[in-house]
């Protein structure tokens, strides 16, 4: 959620740190700060608001020669957990002596007793944060060796952390550590970069080390030494980042979200390419690392995720049950371990996370492992924690997703889940003929999405009619029900309109009381089983004066007659229909938010990767 950047090397550190923070703006934050050395003194500047405000303040307050000469420092963007988004609560935080600076992602759960203990020893605190307690704790243990001080402090804390620590007493190094919150170290030519997100690093190098939990790294300009909390060396492989600088730029689009919506044909093509077996009417997903016997013996499929990933799992639930005849469940990852789930070796747990760092989903993975389940992941970010801890899974290959509101990751997740269900189904009860039918439908997904995107003008016109509304309702059945949930989520995320998604049958069980004259209801009434029932629900809404915007299959005049306004999407296999429907709703939400003047890529209060529970 928060963002960390550390730099040590041959360039001007201030410029590298500010540029790095700008790459992290998409993550969602409320303040920013930076620390470098001015001579032998620690210099810290921080401010609420955007990186632009921090950049202006640095230029105004810091000597010009320092901007050019500083060669090391740390910086941070904060998403508030403890304390309001104020200057005093922003990172970096200093220890009692002012010689050690620290930035932190995560939550120190026992910070209150630690703070009380430090105050009893004479420490004075200037913020409400748990992070300042950690900075003071490092300072308390410091006796000439920053690495050892960090290790000693981390032995005392409970909770999650990704940290970078910098000291005026050891200016040639940065200490980085993680537990539950990602840290990646990039190794360039005479420079090393510490970050919470690889998008910061690609401008400098593609060679990276991903830290594991309880790793502590001594980072210098020309070396990285990784050890554990007990000072035992550990071997971490050097990986190559599969992204480039251009992929993290807008490329001429007004917003990242719009760019990522239009990237979906290519992203989906990457997710599907080489993974369909038309000879067998099945899918080839080597990352699952499963034998036909293992798949045949599975008793249950359980998908865990949060937000958009949860909605993707709901589409997968329909697919696994219909195609493979296996019991399928979708669990909110935050609830999974706390409800003490009943799991066994024949249960197949799929962890779904775009970032691969979602804290609640990672906790669910560990719980599933502990109980002996068969666990795999579905992630977009290569080398992410969830992908590494599951040890098996399927990458989306959707490319970087910068906008907070997920688009191409969602549709790619659904496409991959359909292929998983196809593979599992062919090993159980699905005939080759029906497998081929679905495989061909999956292969056509990029074209289906392109046919939705060319209707941008029509979708913009529909959106214009909803700009002044403050409430909206989305309804659907079958696999279009999760698409309705996702459509409502997109609209509320970026336009701040109160939007709710419902199974169409649920309207009469309470929500219909909220309808009044002109209330927009977006009805997903494509040609899938249950369409007639949905059209009946549409008539119930019309009888209450609601304004109906229909998403229907091409050429379905009967369904269109029930709507006040209509958008047609391509006909396809019922399980695949959720993808073009979701793309139409993404564009709809985007245009509503744009016409309302909202800040689309960085909606208020939200973060891209939720790395705290």
- Percent of residues in β-strands: 15-25%
Strand arrangement in the largest pleated sheet: 3-2-4-1-10-9-11-14
Q: Approximately how much helix is present in the residues? A: 25-40%
Q: What CATH first level of the largest domain would be assigned?
A: Alpha Beta
CATH superfamily of the largest domain: Aminohydrolase, N-terminal nucleophile (Ntn) domain
Describe this entry's structure for a reader:
The chain is α/β, with parallel strands linked by helices and 613 residues long. The protein folds into three domains: 3-248, Aminohydrolase, N-terminal nucleophile (Ntn) domain (Glutamine Phosphoribosylpyrophosphate, subunit 1, domain 1, 4-Layer Sandwich), CATH 3.60.20; 250-443, Glucose-6-phosphate isomerase like protein, domain 1 (Rossmann fold); 453-598, Glucose-6-phosphate isomerase like protein, domain 1 (Rossmann fold), CATH 3.40.50.10490. It has an eight-stranded antiparallel sheet with strand order 3-2-4-1-10-9-11-14, with helices on one face. A hairpin with a 5-residue loop joins strand 5 (93-94) and strand 6.
């Amino acid at each position: 959620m928060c963002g960390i950047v550390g730099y040590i090397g041959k360039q001007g550190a201030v410029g590298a740190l500010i540029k790095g923070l700008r790459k992290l703006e998409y993550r969602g934050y409320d303040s920013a700060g930076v620390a470098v050395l001015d001579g032998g003194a620690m210099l810290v500047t921080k401010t609420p608001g955007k990186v632009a405000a921090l950049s202006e303040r640095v230029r105004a307050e810091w000597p010009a020669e320092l901007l050019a000469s500083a060669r090391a420092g740390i910086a941070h963007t904060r998403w508030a957990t403890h304390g309001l988004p104020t200057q005093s609560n922003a990172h970096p935080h200093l220890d009692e002596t002012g010689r050690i600076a620290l930035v932190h992602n995560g939550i120190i759960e026992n910070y209150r007793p630690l703070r009380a203990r430090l105050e009893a020893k004479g420490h004075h605190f200037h913020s409400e944060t748990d992070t300042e307690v950690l900075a003071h704790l490092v300072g308390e243990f410091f006796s000439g060796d920053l690495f050892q001080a960090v290790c000693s402090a981390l032995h005392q804390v409970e909770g999650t952390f990704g940290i970078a620590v910098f000291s005026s007493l050891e200016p040639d190094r940065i200490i980085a550590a993680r537990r539950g919150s990602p840290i990646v170290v990039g190794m360039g030519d005479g420079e090393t970069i510490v970050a919470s997100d690889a998008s910061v690093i690609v401008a400098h190098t593609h060679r990276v080390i991903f830290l594991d939990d309880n790793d502590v790294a001594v980072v210098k300009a020309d070396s990285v030494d990784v050890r554990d909390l007990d000072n035992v060396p550990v071997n971490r492989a050097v990986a190559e980042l599969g992204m480039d600088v251009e992929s993290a730029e807008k490329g001429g689009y007004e917003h990242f979200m719009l760019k990522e919506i239009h990237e979906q044909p290519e992203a989906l093509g990457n997710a599907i390419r080489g993974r369909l077996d038309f000879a067998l009417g099945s899918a080839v997903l080597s990352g699952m690392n499963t034998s036909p016997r293992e798949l045949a013996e599975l008793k249950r499929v359980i998908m865990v995720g949060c937000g958009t990933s949860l909605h993707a799992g709901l589409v997968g639930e329909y697919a696994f049950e219909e195609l493979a005849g296996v019991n399928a469940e979708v669990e909110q990852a935050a609830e999974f371990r706390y409800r003490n789930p009943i799991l066994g070796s024949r249960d197949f747990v799929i962890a779904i996370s775009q970032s691969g760092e979602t804290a609640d989903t990672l906790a669910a993975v560990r719980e599933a492992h502990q109980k002996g389940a068969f666990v795999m992941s579905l992630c977009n970010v290569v080398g992410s924690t969830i992908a590494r801890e599951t040890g098996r899974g399927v990458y989306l290959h959707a490319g970087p997703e910068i906008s907070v509101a997920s688009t191409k990751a969602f549709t790619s997740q659904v496409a991959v889940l359909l292929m998983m269900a196809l593979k599992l189904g062919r090993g159980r009860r699905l005939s080759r003929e029906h497998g081929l039918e679905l495989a061909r439908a999956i292969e056509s997904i990029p074209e289906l999405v392109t046919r939705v995107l060319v209707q941008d003008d029509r979708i913009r016109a529909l959106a214009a009619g909803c700009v002044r509304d403050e409430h909206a309702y989305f309804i659907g059945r079958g696999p279009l029900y999760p698409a309705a949930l996702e459509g409502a989520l997109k609209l509320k995320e970026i336009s701040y309109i109160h939007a709710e998604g419902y199974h169409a049958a649920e309207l009469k069980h309470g929500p219909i009381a909220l309808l009044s004259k002109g209330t927009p209801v977006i009805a997903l009434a494509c040609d899938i089983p249950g369409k007639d029932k949905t059209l009946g629900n549409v008539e119930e809404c019309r009888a209450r004066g609601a304004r109906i915007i229909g998403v229907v299959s091409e050429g379905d005049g009967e369904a269109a007659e029930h709507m006040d306004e209509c958008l047609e999407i391509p006909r396809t296999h019922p399980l695949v229909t959720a993808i073009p429907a979701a793309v139409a709703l993404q564009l709809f939400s985007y245009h509503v938010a744009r016409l309302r003047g909202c800040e689309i890529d960085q909606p208020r209060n939200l973060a891209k990767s939720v790395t705290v529970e």
